[in-house]
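re: that complex we talked abt at group meeting.

here r the seqs, copy pasted straight from the sheet so there may be weird spacing, ignore it
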Amino acid sequence: DAEITQSPRHKITETGRQVTLACHQTWNHNNMFWYRQDLGHGLRLIHYSYGVQDTNKGEVSDGYSVSRSNTEDLPLTLESAASSQTSVYFCASSTRKGYTDTQYFGPGTRLTVL
Amino acid sequence: RKEVEQDPGPFNVPEGATVAFNCTYSNSASQSFFWYRQDCRKEPKLLMSVYSSGNEDGRFTAQLNRASQYISLLIRDSKLSDSATYLCVVSYSGGGADGLTFGKGTHLIIQP
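got the structure back, here u go
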């Protein structure tokens, strides 16, 4: 069955380290997204991509980067991890460009920055 | 600013009861509306889209009031398994990922 996976599921790192969170989907969806979810906030968009070689900044993109070299993967990199980036990170994918379509979420990565 | 507001709850409801909660949105240009369900420490999953004429899916009914800028979710004959956080999601004109705004969620607890 098609699915969307994230790895690692849990990560503890230190301030200043570079961290990469993986997201892989097998639906062949064009659109992929990264969100973070914190207590007291809704899901907030970090970066998104409409296809290979396309990346766009979301609402809270500072300190994060993404790259899209193929359809299946959108890794999220924290260039220099900060304690404020402790959060749960969700990757999602959907099918249509420029329209709101059902977003399918991965199981999430719980990141702690010490 | 695009905002989606929800009562965070928790709503404590006995099993078998009917429960309803609303979500208000600030941008009148909003185009699409959804309810997602999120279980504790899990990912959000689409519960249902919300159509202008209102729509029903089993025990769940969603309604949209564009004049007052709110959407609602009604759950009839609630089950223990309905306990979850319900996220209101609104898409604004222009579409695209940056047009999707999530509410903070309403926490529902169904009690036996």
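couple things i noticed - The two ends of chain A are 37 Å apart (CA to CA). The mean pLDDT of chain A is 92.
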